[in-house]
Amino acid sequence: MRLFKKMVIIVAILSLSILLVSAMNASETHFRGTFQRTLPKSTLIGSIPLQNIADTVSRTAIKYGQEIQAQKAAEPKIPFFVGNSLVEGMRLNSGDGYPFCCKVGISLKELNDTLKLPDDYDIAIIEMGSNELGLYSEEQFVEEYKTLIQTLSCPCYCLSIPPCNEGKSRYAPRVNNKNVVEYNEYVQRVCEETGATYIDCSSFFGSTLKKEWTGDGLHLRPSVYAEWYQWTLDQIGIETD
Q: What global pTM score does this model have?
C-alpha cells in the first residue's frame, strides 16, 4: 500500500510536469496577448520561468522514482516455490514460511490447470521436468513451461532438472541422465524465450546423483533437500535467518 501511494505521487508529479510544458507550448500566442501586457512570456509563477519549473519538477520526479526503485530492490523478496515432488521435498525440509505449490507426480499440464497463486510473492522458483522425461516432445514441454511462466507473471527462476542415479533407480527407463541433459536444454530454451533466469543445479548435484543422497535414484534424503533449498536461495540472493 505504501508503494502504491508513492507511485500515485510520482504519476501526479509527472503529470504536472507534462501539463506545465504543454501549457507553455500551447499558450505561446496567449502569452503574447493578454498576459504579455503585464508579464514576460517566460514568467508564470512569480519571476520563475515556466520551463525552469517544468525541468525542476521532472528532475524531482525522476529522482524520487529512482529512490523508490532502489528501496524496492533492497526489500526482502518473497519467493513462491512451484513444482513437483522435488519441490515438495524442499517444502517439507524448509522452515521459512514461504508459499509453495507442489504435488507428487504432477505434470506441467496438470500444474497449469490447477495452479493457485498466493496473495503475496515477488518471484517464482520453478522445478519441473522429471515427470516429463521421455514423455513430452520439445515443443510440448516448452509451450507448457512458457504458459506456466506467463501465469506466474513475475521474475521466474527455473531450476535445472537434477540428475538421477540410474543404478538405484526404481523408475521407468526413460528416467535417465541422457534425458535429463536433453530436457535441461529445453528449460534453457524456455528461459531464453521468456527472459526467465536459468539456474544450473549441476554445481550442487554434479552429473550423477550421489547414491548416498537418494533412496530410489531420484528423490533426495531430507538433509539434502534442506541443503538444496538453502543453496537455491543463495543463488538468487535471498537471505534467511
A: 0.72
